[in-house]
Task: structure prediction
Amino acid sequence: MSEATSQAQSTPEDVIGTYFLDIWRNMSKVAALKPDGTPISAFEMDVDSEEVPSELDTVNSSGGFSVIRPDKLSLLYPSVNLHEHDVGVVQANHPAPSKRLFYYFEIYVKNAGAKGQIAIGFTTSAFKLRRQPGWEANSYGYHGVDGLLYRGHTKGEAFGPTYTTGDTVGGGINYSAQEFFFTKNGAIVGTVFKEVKGPLFPTVAVHSQNEEVTVNFGKDPFVFDIKAYEEEQRAKDQSKLDNISIQQDASYRIVRCYLQHYGYEDTLKLFDVSARTNLSPASDDSLNDQYCTYALNERRNLRQLIRSGKIDDTFSTLGQLYPHVVQVSEDRFFLAAYLSKYYKDGTSAICFLLHCQKFIELLRDAKLEEAILYGRTEFQKFKSLSGVDELVKDCAALLAYEDPSKSSVGYLLHDSQRELVADAVNAAILHTNPAVKDARLCMHSSLERLIRQVTACYLEKRSLEWDQGEAFQLRRLVESGKKG
Amino acid sequence: MSLFWVVIRQTAQRHYMAKKLVTMVDWEKKLNDVKVRREDMNKLVMNFLVTEGYVDAAEKFQIESGTEPDIDLATITDRMMVKKAIQDGNVEDAIEKVNDLNPEILDTNPQLFFHLQQQRLIELIRNGKVEEALEFAQEELTPRGEENQGFLEELERTVALLAFEDAANSPVSDLLDMSQRFKTASEVNAAILTSQSHEKDPKLPSLLKLLILVQNQLDEKAIYPRINNFPTATLEERTV
Result:
């Protein structure tokens, strides 16, 4: 951290270069998870990995009152029960995962036995595994014999219907609404507010002779339409947004700034023509514009060159560009001096990115020999640049595969790599603007800052609420509403 | 209650209510940990351009960024022509175009159809065609009004325009406003999008609303740098 800061003081643009190298390193790590080169789905990338209940816990189960079958998904009460402390109660092997909208599981009553004293519910790790769920504090149970809900007392409350042999009963936790919900044969029978915080184990209990239940933790489809329940909850959460009002032209200004920031000049021109009526005259924007429209045309051209893989042209354009673009100021000397780092012989991180891209483009055109020669000449120049070894390795690895697109380094051949290089060059040019003091303004558009803020806020909020509920995922928002 | 217990209770309450303080440095670390894909941001922007109907900009954006639009751009042009017709006051033309696009839209949307007819009436009144306006109102709109109380009230408001010498300064002057045209145009836009199985609202505003919501919720538990000005998206450090 301190090394980067001291570097930043002497060569400001390295802050930007390092930032983009970090992004590349992250992309490399993510791609390494998929050796066959298939893209990582949003689900795999963003989902917080939590353990999920998969079977009944045979280690902690109640002392021999119940029998768990070898598949660990069936529970039987073989003997005659004698009293209230010999309940055959079992928890799942893991607590319910909480970093999601809800959790749900079902039991099927194979045999209600002598008295049908079956229960489904949730208990904590401290639960006395000899009592019905719900009879003890911090436990919840929906009992089949009387249809009552027990939550912390031996006296239950009217809740739902009784259930017996042949019924499928489900228990769930809705983290968004902070409530438990129970179902019978596919229909919700009731909900109850969730007071207990902290990890909760799905729990099943049997208590009279020959009672037998099987448990489904999701291996088989549920009887209850859990997808519909999810849609309903999402719709409810979405409707909470309806009453929130936002500044009328906020979206327009954000999109405009995005287009300016990344240099989408042609789009911006057409957008301005169409959207003019929607933008209220805002004094703020003139300040933003000064930053955002700096060298717009040059940035646009460079992006197009890089996106088409024309790296040599990119270098020559950069070399010619700067005497014209840089405004006269006392800093000119200083700027001219370190701008030479963008030229072909430069040793900055930006140059490194460009040279790697040239290498990749040569391989894309199947010019293997030329690529190897190029790599040998250029890569060694960057030995002093920290942290690039893995990245050079990734580039070099492309040579090893007949079809590199199906390997863990296949990501280098995607558009996203070209985009990364284009973004780095874009940011570096923005930073040559003498009016810009903070390099970080060049790295992100306001849209990106907003996305980071909303994501960080949700994560922070969740961590302060016992890690319950879904965090914000941009991918989910972007993919929402897609039919079919 | 003795002072001792008052102090104990207040201290306990303060601890219970105590908010977590997150410094700017720590908050920026958390922000830096968030990974945002350019692809996703591009999709968000494309979705905005497409849903708002900026065809030309969307086409250009497709070229400049390589992002695929999430609906066929050709259908946007038709939709925009309908929108433009209404914004220009050519409601009959707009109705014809909507029916060309999809006759079911107006069939299944009585409220929309009524609003379009209402707009037609407004335009007739605006152009001073009093006789025609009255005839139109009586033949086309009154029957609808008889079926629906809400329609009737709106009809009465609209017809009231005729009762004022200076309609632009009357209590119902808002109907003559351009904003009334925009309202109708938006309604049609949404109906067409829905009929094409497309979400009628762009996603970007939802993102902004989510940010407002979560910051308000987080405010109850923590003190941290907020973003209050969305277009500039600058962090504001909190002074405790």
